C-alpha cells in the first residue's frame, strides 16, 4: 500500500486553496496521506523572523513589552488577513479560531512577564519558555500549531464531500526520561514507533492526519543538528515509520523552488541558465546537503539520512505552484546507473562569510599532534574543510561566530597540544576573515580525468586565487577556498564551463 507524507512549506498556507486542492484531489483518489506543516508566511511577512525578534527581546534584561505587542499584532493581522483574503467560504469560523489562539499566546506571554519563567534560547535562534513547574512553551511550536489548526479547518471547508481532518500534536510524544541515555538512532526508532501508532489510528478512521511538532524535547545532539528545518526531519521520521511497516513510502517536500538546480539562480549572471536536475540518488543528495546546500534552505540532511534511504523512501522536492510544467527533483533510493550515466549532473554552490584559521607547529607530522588539535577544535567549531601539511593545519569555519573569542579560549589548549613552550614568541594561531567556499559536486566526476585541474585552471584564468583546495578520495566533490569577493564570479565561470557548455 502506498502512503505519501506531504511536508508543506510556510507559503503554501498563503495559497490556501491551491495547497489544499492538491490534498483533496489525492484524498478523492483514495490515497493515504499525512500532512506536516510549517509556520505560515508570505514574501512580505516572515513569521519565523518575527518570532526570533520576539525571542531576542524576551531574552534581554529589560524587556520592551510594547515591541513584543506590536510584533504579535502584525502577526495576528497577517494570519487573519490571509484567511479572509484566500477563503471565501467559512473564513469567519477560521478567523474566530485564529483570534482564540492569539489570546492564548498573549496570556502565556503575560504570565511570563509576571513570573520567574526563563527563556531558553536553543540552537539557530529558537526559543522556548519553561521552568520545572510549567509546561514548556515554544514560540516556533505555537506557530506550527496555529498553521495545523487553520489547515484542519480549511480542508473540510473547501471540500464538496465530507472530509475529516485531525491534528496530531507530537510535541510531547516522548518523555525526556525515555531518551536520556539513548543515541540518535535509538531515539529515532522510538519516535518512529510512536508516530506510526498515532498516525495509523487517524488514518483508520478515514481522516487526514495533520501533524505539528516542535523538537524542544531533544537536548542532546538532535536539536543541534535540526534547527529551523525540523519539519523536514519530522516528515522523514513519519514516512520511515510507515515504510518499515511494508508501506510504499513517498516523501513530498514542498518548497518555493522548482527543485534541485545546477546552481542557485540568484548567484548566476543569467538566472535562466540554472538547470533543473530531475533525478538524484541519496549519495549525491547527501554530498550537497553536507556542503553548501543548507544555505539554499531546500532540504535538511536529516531528511536524507541513511535510515530514510534504507527504508526505500522516494523523496520528491518541488514547488506545487510553479507555473512551468516542471516535475521537480526526485531523490531515489537507487538509480539505474545506465540511465543516470547518460547525463552528468554537476552542482556549483558557494558559501560566503567563511573564516580560515591555521594552527602551526614544527611537529605536525606526529599523528598525536593532529589528533589532539582536532579533538580541541571540534569543541569550539563546526568545521567545513581541513587542509594539513607537515607544519600547519588549516580549518574553514562559519564566520558568523565570535572567532576571536573562541580562539582566545582555546589558545592554551592548542599550545599544549602543539608542544609549544609558554614563553615562545611564535604566532601559532592565525586567522583570516572574508573568505568563501565554492563547491562542485557530481556523481561521475571521478570518471572525468583532469577535472580538478581544469576547474583550477578556469579559476586562475579569471584571476581568482585558490587559497585552499580539497577533494575526497571518491571524487564526488571538490571544494575551493577563495576570497569572498570572488565567490559569485567563481560560481559563474565554473557553471558556464561544466553546466552551460555541456547543456
Structure summary:
This protein has 503 residues and is of the alpha/beta class. It has helices at residues 16-28, 47-58, 65-86, 91-113, 139-158, 176-179, 184-204, 222-226, 230-243, 282-290, 293-296, 306-310, 337-341, 367-377, 403-417, 451-461, 487-500; strands at 2-7, 32-36, 118-121, 127-131, 134-138, 165-169, 208-212, 248-254, 260-261, 276-277, 279-281, 314-318, 329-332, 346-360, 383-388, 392-398, 429-442, 468-471, 477-483.
Question: Key features?
Answer:
single chain; 503 residues; alpha/beta; Carbamate kinase; VC0802-like; 2 domains; 8-stranded mixed beta sheet; 17 helices; 22% strand; globular
Topology:
Blueprint: E1 2-7, H1 16-28, E2 32-36, H2 47-58, H3 65-86, H4 91-113, E3 118-121, E4 127-131, E5 134-138, H5 139-158, E6 165-169, H6 176-179, H7 184-204, E7 208-212, H8 222-226, H9 230-243, E8 248-254, E9 260-261, E10 276-277, E11 279-281, H10 282-290, H11 293-296, H12 306-310, E12 314-318, E13 329-332, H13 337-341, E14 346-360, H14 367-377, E15 383-388, E16 392-398, H15 403-417, E17 429-442, H16 451-461, E18 468-471, E19 477-483, H17 487-500
Parallel strand pairs: 1-2, 1-8, 2-7, 6-7, 8-12, 11-13
Antiparallel strand pairs: 3-4, 4-5, 9-10, 12-13, 14-16, 14-17, 15-16, 17-19, 18-19
